[in-house]
Amino acid sequence: MKAVLAAVPNPSAASSSDAVLAALADAHARRVQAEEEIRLLLAYGRQFVYPHPYTFGELASASGMSVSGVRTAFGQQDIDKVAVATGLEPVPSEGEES
Predict the structure, then answer these.
(1) Could you count the other beta carbons within 10 Å of the beta carbon of residue 45?
(2) DSSP character string of the chain
(3) What angle separates helix 19-47 from helix 76-86, to the nearest 10 degrees?
(4) What confidence tens digit (pLDDT) does each residue in 85-96 have?
(5) Which tens digits make up the pLDDT trace of 13-48?
(6) Quick one: pLDDT at residue 14?
């Protein structure tokens, strides 16, 4: 909790904006960025690793998600972003059993 409170600017030093709302907005932006990073890493782990993509179980454990959560966490847009960022092509999937 100390780390969270340390991120809150001193209200007396804040400009006309609200320090608590600004800190919340900053935290939200970091969470949105982290969620995108997780989606892209999941997409990479399932669609770009050959010959053995990471299993849903491995990715779920590492990401703190459920297997079903990993299955639905990323979509084609995320796969496309990974392809552009890496220059790689997604590996054709032969079923989603793992």
Answers:
(1) 20
(2) -HHHHHHSPPTTT--SS-HHHHHHHHHHHHHHHHHHHHHHHHHHHHHT--SSPPPHHHHHHHHT--HHHHHHH--HHHHHHHHHHH-PPPPPPS-S--
(3) 80
(4) 999 999 987 655
(5) 445 589 999 999 999 999 999 999 999 999 999 999
(6) 47
Q: Model-level pTM? A: 0.77
The tokens describing 20, both together, are 């608590």
Average pLDDT estimate for 49-55: 94
Cβ contacts of residue 27 below 8 Å, gap of 6+? 7
- CA 80 to CA 89: how far, in whole Å? 9
The answer for residues whose C-beta is within 8 angstroms of residue 40's C-beta and 6 or more apart is 74, 78, 81, 82, 85
- CA neighbor of 50 nearest in space, from 92, 95, 82: 92
